[in-house]
Amino acid sequence: MKGTVRLLSLLLCGAFPALAAGPGSTLVPATFNEGAVIVTDRAAVADLASALRDAASAAGSSCTKSEYVVWTQPDDDLEETFNSGVKSLGYTYRLLDRNDEADGRASVFALSGPQQSLAGLWVEAQGNAVLAWCVLKPVTGTAPAKPAPALQPTAPAASVPRPTPAPAPAKPAAPASTAKVPAIKPGYVTGLVLDTQGRPLAGARVFINGTTFTQGQKTSFETETKADGTYSLRVPDGRYQAKASYTTTFEGQTFSFFMDPASGNPNTNVDSSEGGNLNFRWKLSGLRAGSGAGASRDTDFYGSSVDFSYCGLPASAYCDSRYSAVTPGAAPGGSVITVTFIPQGKLVDGSTGKPIVYTFKAAPLAPPGGYPYSDPNGGGRTTLGQDWPYHSTNFNDLPLGKYILTVTATLPNGSKKPLKLGLTDGDVEHDSVTVRWVPWDDFNPANYSGGGIKQMKVYVRD
């Protein structure tokens, strides 16, 4: 559902007055609740349109006219409000499918009305909500429905949830039938390497090192996985451990990724005289094996990282001196800052990404001379986040992809204010920036135990 990310982008970049009514629906005579954004860009809804076609098929028909709506700050009961709204318009609601996950939920539904039928998809995840629905093509051979009394133009709104993150990700595919762990053979170190979806991963490099029993000699070997994701290597009797990596090209750059050991311990070893399996899986995010709970370094995660640096008010200490004046209308303390990474296209493994949203409260603005947030010449603050120990913070563990980054402050009065961004400290002038990562120089997974993806730096100011 990559199209929904652009929908979220449009919403997050808009400034909606508090208490303002939402837009009117193009499918039913009703008005959406506050915060709704109707998206019409074809590229933005391309993949979501595919999911909507599936929903229409599940309802036994196909779409004739569709509509896509996003909320970036939905109410907790937005879906229920929407269901009540369409029922008040005379539609009968029928749930076709529902998927509840720890990080979101999705519902497929059908609506039968006096003059037309509709089908749709409702998704809530990471604090955002998305509605995709369409009018169904009448089924041939059935008698037309009796016309119903005209509905009032201001019929109860088909309320949609307030802005929530991207749709819930699909469940990882189960390992393919060919993904079989090899049989243990005395004298061999063997194993299976899977991709991010649990399928056999061919061409992964496996590095085996250990100590022989007879001479106590340290030795190492390297091999590659076959088409079925397995490897098998004859080694002298001894104790061995392994690590695996996979190298691929993405956005014109060559990246190498460490595979996650199935045991959860990168130091797991086997006795080759008896034989043993050391298995791995490719992960785009999550703590690296061996990293403890509470780890915060960018190299502690399988995902990529952004160093998010605030220019400050005044900004001369961190960015170009032309940003040193306190910005009129700067987001006051207590404003909620929403940082949204919106995927563009597929992730490095070919899967569809989803928006990633961070929120935190802004540090207070101090009067001139108000230490520690300002300097004596103009007031302001030097940290954007209320709990930031420094002027920057890390956003870690983003699955490698290409993203559009936007930052919006929701002020105490409910209005929204886009913050300015830049990829250098002398050009912090943009409403959004494109985030792309590059690999470490001369990175060799055979002899290094961390990293592989350079941390990217992004600058932000009021």
UniProtKB/TrEMBL annotation:
Residues 162-172 have a biased composition (Pro residues). Residues 145-161 have a biased composition (Low complexity). Keywords: Signal. Residues 1-20 form the signal peptide. Residues 145-178 are annotated as: Disordered. The keyword Signal applies. InterPro entries: CarboxyPept-like_regulatory. The keyword Protein biosynthesis does not apply. This is Carboxypeptidase regulatory-like domain-containing protein. It comes from Deinococcus humi.
